[in-house]
Amino acid sequence: MLLGVRRCVIAILSAAVAALAVAAPAQAQALTIGIADQRAGTFHVAWDAMRYDWQRREIDTWMSAAKTAGIVPLVTFGRSRTRKFSLPPVDVYRKEMLRFRHRYPDVREYSPWNEPNLAVRRSNYDPQRIASYYRVLRRMCPTCDVLGADVVDTTSIDRWMRAYLREFPRDQRPRLWGLHNYVDVNSRSDWGTRMMRRLAPGEIWFTETGAIIRRRKPSALDDNDRRSLIRIGGGARAVQATRRVFRLAATSPRITRVYIYHWKATRNGSWDSALVAPDGTTRPSFDVFAAQARRALAAAAEPDPAPAPDPA
Length: 312
Description:
With 312 residues, the chain is α/β, with parallel strands linked by helices.
């Protein structure tokens, strides 16, 4: 589940910082910044979560807290937390989405599936199935913001996005997209972000991004896998990578949101790209995020600039 605030609306994330609309120099409009996380307080939603009392209680608690804080949630659906990973049949997915929508009618922003181009088995990244999920959400809530897909900037992004776009008539293609550009942010390459800009029509949101401090090495990593470009490290490298997030966002006025993943690290987690250390102290990358918060306060008071052309 992703936390965000609408443009020119500021919501407190902690006593120290707000999640904000940030105006980068090259942007045609203010950039919305949020936190992406899936831990106890903030998480993406398993597609079958409504079947389990304990998952419903978790989500109820989170939704109540988000509403109190004035936070706008972007809900991303993904693999089950109780069964072997496979894409559910479309009719089953539809049933579960209707149950979710009935329980949480105030949610207005959705992503149909998390990182479909990263699945190892072909049956678990089927573009046709993901397109069907997208259509389910669009029909379920025609006035909601629904991402066409939430993809990772791995080598597969080019092939998968082209196959996915073929599932739609040109005039019916989604106009809102999510990108997890960890490779570009944590390397010297910008290929993934450029490829997404080239292929995806409409707006692009960085729905997960951030400086990787620790991660489990991906399995079956070959020489052609872009994830081999990722460089991880301590404070100085994390600061550089976090700054790079916003430089990449500023390359196009079509990039309108950034969600940093994630808020607070755990001591023994297999992935750490957090702004806050396990002991609760803020990291140097947090200061970069906070600086964007201060800029947002000024940007929110400024009139909208004239639209800027999207660079090639």
